[in-house]
């Protein structure tokens, strides 16, 4: 059994918008939009894993902030959490994703209504919308 945690980043720009990343795989998720992230490796803290994953996937350095409250059970023993973050160096680049997009509350809500958000990530939408509407 592979236990563990997946950590995703809710990355906010200085103008308040949120970064979404378009998945390239697996086929059933390709084209849908997510908070970028990945699995926490043994010996890493959540924050360290998020910094590493966002460096690998987006080529940016981030400063990690406060966790979102909702967590998602991906399968028994594998949970996913999200943490707010800000970019401190670099411009996000697509290495593993099809595309990237900065969204405001109305755009995020419209994408959700159109079914364009990765299903697991929908758990965070109320908190993300609250952040974006602050
Ligand atoms: N996941 C998700 N929503 C996200 C990020 C991840 O639902 N915002 C899910 C999809 C996968 C699992 O978490 O079931 C792992 O995600 P990734 O494949 O993106 O992460 P890794 O690259 O770390 O995993 P792997 O090594 O398995 O490719």
From TrEMBL:
Pfam families xrefs: NUDIX (PF00293)
Catalytic activity reported: 8-oxo-dGTP + H2O = 8-oxo-dGMP + diphosphate + H(+)
All residue ranges annotated as the Nudix hydrolase domain in the record: 2-130
Alphabetical list of InterPro entries matching this protein: MutT-like, Nudix_hydrolase, NUDIX_hydrolase-like_dom_sf, NUDIX_hydrolase_CS, NUDIX_hydrolase_dom
Cofactor requirement: Mg(2+)
Keywords: DNA damage, DNA repair, DNA replication, Hydrolase, Magnesium, Metal-binding, Mutator protein
Any coiled-coil regions, as ranges: none
Record EC number: 3.6.1.55
Top-level taxon of the source organism: Bacteria
Family according to the record: Belongs to the Nudix hydrolase family.
Protein name (database record): 8-oxo-dGTP diphosphatase
Protein source organism: Gordonia liuliyuniae
């Amino acid at each position: 059994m592979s236990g563990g945690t997946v950590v995703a980043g809710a990355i906010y720009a200085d103008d308040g918008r949120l970064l979404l990343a378009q998945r390239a795989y697996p086929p059933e998720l390709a084209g849908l939009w997510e908070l970028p992230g990945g699995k926490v490796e043994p010996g890493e803290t959540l924050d360290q894993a998020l910094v590493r994953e966002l460096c690998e996937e987006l080529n940016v350095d981030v400063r990690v902030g406060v966790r979102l409250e909702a967590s998602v059970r991906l399968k028994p023993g594998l949970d996913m959490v999200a943490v707010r973050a800000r970019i401190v160096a670099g411009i996000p680049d697509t290495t593993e994703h099809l595309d990237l997009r900065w969204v405001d509350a109305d755009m995020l809500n419209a994408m959700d209504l159109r079914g364009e958000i990765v299903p697991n990530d929908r758990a965070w939408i109320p908190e993300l919308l609250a952040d974006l509407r602050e």
